[in-house]
Fold this sequence. Notes:
By secondary structure, this protein is of the alpha+beta class. It contains 2 helices and 4 strands.
Amino acid sequence: MSENTADEKIDLRNVLCPINFVKTKLKLEAMESGQVLEVTLDDGEPMRNVPRSIKEEGHKVIKVEQFDDGYRIFVKKS
């Protein structure tokens, strides 16, 4: 599997903090260690808070992509 392929995807645009992190955390908890989750987020507060919180949980943000109306972050479950 390449680094750009996600095992799971979750679109959290228009989801407010901290609900977007809670949903990300729950999704990661259901995944196997080493799997990759693609999270789609809005710019601003979600992009400031969610990646930081993910790292605090011990997971690794392996890639961030910007696109028209938000960001995709790829998280490798620890």
